[in-house]
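Example complex used in Figure S2.
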Amino acid sequence: MKPRETFYDVMRRQGITRRSFMKYCSLTASALGLGPAFVPKIAHAMETKPRTPVIWLHGLECTCCSESFIRSAHPLVKDVVLSMISLDYDDTLMAAAGHAAERALEETIEQYKGNYILAVEGNPPLNEDGMFCISGGKPFVEKLRYAAKDAKAIISWGACASYGCVQAAYPNPTQATPVHKVISDKPIIKVPGCPPIAEVMTGVITYMLTFDRLPELDRQGRPAMFYGQRIHDKCYRRPHFDAGQFVEAWDDENARKGYCLYKMGCKGPTTYNACSTIRWNEGVSFPIQSGHGCIGCSEDGFWDQGSFYDRVTDLTQFGVESNADKIGMTAAAGVGGAVALHAAVSALKAAQRKTQNDVSEEA
Amino acid sequence: MTDTPRRLLVGPFNRVEGDLEIRLEVEDGRVRAAFANSPLFRGFERMLLGKDPRDAMTITPRICGICSISQSAAAAGALAALTGASPAPQGALAAAILHGVENLADHVTHFNLFFMPDFARPAYAGRDWHETAVDRFTAAQGSAVREAVEARAKLFHIVGLLGGKWPHTLAFQPAGVTRAPTERDRQRIRMSLAGFRRYLERVVFGAPVEAFAELATRDALMAWTAGDAGLFLRIAHDLELGKLGRGPGRYLSYGAYPLAEGRAMKPGIWADGQHRPLDTAAITEDLTHAWMLGKSAHPARGVTDPDVEMAEPAYSWCKAPRLGGRTMEVGALARAVVDGHPLALELGASGGGVLARIAGRLLEIARTQILLERWADALRPGEPFMADTPPIRDGAGEGLVEAARGALGHWIRVEGGRIAGYQIVAPTTWNFSPRDANGTPGPLEAALEGVKVAPGEDTPIAVQHVVRSFDPCMVCTVH
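Predicted assembly (842 residues):
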């Protein structure tokens, strides 16, 4: 059997120059927050390690994750990652159709048994024996189990695969179920968001392909490097929150001044994601910058927490903060003025400490 | 072997948005009957019940990751109709820009990533255009595919600026948009549009977009040789795609881009050789061949109650929308026909088909680029982008927009301040609908009848051309 190709071989075959390859390595290092010392390490790994194949499956979903993914910031990174993936199996983009596509899946699994990464977009609906999502004549849940059996690790792309997302909203008509509730014997990394940010997706997959292991995860199974902070922590409107300057109605004078959207229902204070730092569409903007509050799409259960336009009042529902509901209570009570705000800020800080304590206690 | 009727199950389909399966009955080397099944059901209309009506603007876009703005716009439109909100003129303009960018990007994606790669298949080896097609359009690797993905990502900077993020943009509200662009934003939007124009003129059309938008006859179209559009037309001529996959020859459009001065593309229908006004009261959703319980009804009174027995004769989760009892084709071609564009009329009047649908889409790419530039020039940063939002009240509302793939309607009913009824009829619901009570097949099913199937073909390539020519969005179809 001829030795498996390395990533470097694949890239060269795709017409990527040595110079571009080195640039890719340094971009990857910086995207992942690693120092310049890691560049030769990444390069060495890519030159010597056999390519890790990726199988990308779609369940009950809207394809927004793929849509986000193919728009990631650096054309080179996207090119490389996309060409690596498209070599194997992806049912939205691939060339083959029908039975040929099903065979391609079987062959990939057979050939790379135990060595491939399974990327799942969407989730399996379990109601009525899974008949709400039939793929190749079989319920998607069977395809998922089949592909997962010989996978080295699984990536749960987006809120659907990670938590269920809006299709799991009450009454969850199809019993849409996140991947980790169906597959329990494989390492699973959750990359939530609806969709996740493109750069987060390429960052995660590049890390796994390059270092052949999962990045550091938080206690919910998310990559800590991207989900370690709340939107609120790095929000450019944060000073207005601290100063008690809020938008009161859409496009009012305060909105034009870029005040805080907390009163318009922004879920930034309870949402862990990188939107306010990496931003969207090649770093152009993110929802809060467009004048609309965050809806918390990377948090478990965001779809059933009352209206998206209600103020955050009971943060415990999110399972993230233990006592931060005080912020909501204080502000919602409409006390107004500096005193209430000061209390709110203190509560937030207290909440942070509490969360940290929780983590260390659990660890 | 070709003499005995045989059954083919084609699917799962790749390079369409979502899941699709088609059952074919083949006789004498041709499709005798086709049955389109949308095998994916999520139940959005059920989840919306009991929710805050405003949440429809956040939940419905998640029906689809490729036309989420269309869903936002339809939901905002339905709420505007319910509350009597009237969008600020500049807000409507910003919304049109956001929506136009999505539609434009969808067409470019469809052409490069979903439709053209079929011509790079080995089945066409030996044709004089095949090598070029392989080089340009091999799935996920062709040079055109890369260029399109890159150009599209840059175009979406506009959605970033005006809407914060894409997919699942949040800026749409009944009375306008949440972001008032600054002069700097306006300049950046113009720059992004200029960049996209360069891409279109260098790669897709090989000539000024105006020249393509002004094509008025089929002969002039077929004489177009420049760019990837020229390559497609050469292929279409060689494979006679003009005769393949004829539709019902009846077209419906809600009219694209509601602006203060009216819709930028006219609403209406084209049937029996003439333009007519559209009467949405004549729309019904027929359930006889859908795995749904209940009676056929107008969407304002419709319900979504899946039949877990999946009882015969139903064969799809998709309902069958009809206008006055008849099937209608929707999409870019339908929009241009209804709008009265001479080329579209000539192509569409004879029943359309694969060539007409793709040409209709290319035409709309050119026209949308021009519209977007005009709208960007008309942005006035100092003016209001959101009018007063009246409170939610009990009642009903209808939100009609044109998504890339055609007519999209939302019907909302509110009781006690909560959603009591919500029905969505998506473009592909029209095009890929199953049979109705009279046994009349949906537009795609009818278009597939008579299509050639070569002996031994289990995923007939001509069938794939027809299916993809509609640019189906299956996740929207059944939601």
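The mean pLDDT of chain B is 93. Chain B touches chain A through 82 residues (CB under 8 Å).
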